[in-house]
Write a structure and sequence with these properties.
The protein is of the alpha/beta class. The chain folds into two domains: 29-142 and 265-287, 3-Layer(aba) Sandwich (Rossmann fold), CATH 3.40.50; 146-262 and 297-324, Rossmann fold (3-Layer(aba) Sandwich). Helices cover 42% and strands 19% of the residues. It contains 14 helices and twelve strands. The strands form two sheets. A seven-stranded mixed sheet has the order 7-6-8-9-10-11-12, with helices on both faces. The protein has a five-stranded parallel sheet with strand order 2-1-3-4-5, sandwiched between helices. The longest helix is centred in the first third of the chain and has 17 residues, at 38-54. It is elongated, with a radius of gyration of 24 Å.
């Protein structure tokens, strides 16, 4: 072949080189929207990332995970959701009804997996548990009778319980109101007097607990991102007010609460990774049924009990999955 013909041949084939010799498939990108702060949410994110790697998706190898934190702010959640849409992520993963709604409002095309959300049907996240429809699926926190179980455990520790205060963040679209109603019904069935204290913003926490001093024998705290973000502060205020607390998330007891009974969110995040795995392999969110909790965790904080001057019966301690001493 003459030199001129050789150069022409090379030039003509150059356009195909990236497709033949240098082609690289883009790796999937997952947008993880943490509902609280990095420090509080870290065990959840770590559980998700670890389970994902066990399923063959290793961060920065064959998948990229973009971590962001809403810090219990609905506005920040909307900003992050919009950022994920601009980044064209392949899946959005989050927890909490407010955050899932922020993601759903930002996109109807990108799959959204919620690791934990209360009342997903009534809040409009999905059409039904069996057939979610649309681009959203995940794991529901909705379990009938949970409030009654928490009150029964609380009475085992405080047999003299007569007046129960209920604290919950009712701002925005949330399942907290539904839980507060369930707690009131269960409490009245037990003959308890109920005092309802509603939060509309984090600044309401201090005055709300202050007004409960001397008026209640115990405080039932409804779980949501605002409460979890401020869990240590809330438990400190409750301790100062001599109010034994019952929480809905196990991690809240580790932050100084007296008792907690509920689903283990890091465990749900592991299960959410399994749903993401299905989606990355071609499954559609609309066809993946929303799962419900099957296991619950009961935690007792004996340090807090001692500070309150309470003795937790040994029989109750035997029921606990974890006892903090």
């Amino acid at each position: 072949m003459r030199r001129r013909d050789f150069i022409k041949a090379i030039a003509g084939s150059a356009g195909s080189w990236p497709l033949v010799a240098h082609a690289q498939q883009p790796i999937p990108v997952i947008g993880y929207l943490g509902s609280t702060t990095p420090s509080i949410d870290r065990p959840r994110a770590a559980a998700f990332v670890k389970r994902l790697s066990e399923l063959g998706w290793v961060n920065d190898r064959n998948v990229r995970i973009e971590l962001r934190w809403a810090e219990a702010s609905a506005e920040r959640a909307r900003e992050i959701a919009a950022e994920f849409v601009r980044l064209k992520v392949d899946v959005i993963v989050t927890t909490g009804t407010v955050n899932v709604l922020a993601a759903k409002q930002a996109t109807a095309a990108i799959p959204i997996v919620f690791a934990a959300a209360g009342e997903p049907v009534s809040t409009g996240l999905i059409e039904s548990l069996a057939r979610p429809g649309g681009n959203v699926t995940g794991l529901s926190l909705e379990v009938a009778g949970t409030a009654g179980k928490r009150l029964a455990l609380l009475r085992e520790v405080i047999p003299s319980l007569r007046r129960l205060a209920i604290l919950g963040n009712v701002a925005g679209i949330s399942s907290v109101k539904a839980e507060m109603n369930e707690v009131q019904t269960a409490a009245r069935t037990l003959g308890l007097e109920v005092i309802v204290s509603e939060l509309h913003r984090p600044e309401d926490i201090d005055p709300a607990i202050e007004t409960l001093k001397g008026r209640a024998d115990a405080l039932y705290i409804c779980a949501d991102p605002v409460v979890t973000t401020n869990e240590t502060h809330i438990n400190s205020l409750a301790l100062s007010a001599r109010l034994p607390t019952m929480h809905g998330l196990p991690e809240n007891a580790a932050a100084g609460g007296l008792l907690a009974y509920g689903v283990d969110i890091p465990d749900l995040c592991r299960r959410a990774a399994e749903i993401v795995d299905k989606i990355l392999r071609g499954a559609k969110p609309a066809n993946i049924p929303v799962e419900q909790p099957t296991t619950f965790k009961f935690v007792i904080n004996l340090r807090t009990a001692k500070a309150l001057g309470l003795t937790v019966p040994y029989s109750t301690q035997l029921l606990a999955d974890e006892v903090i001493e």
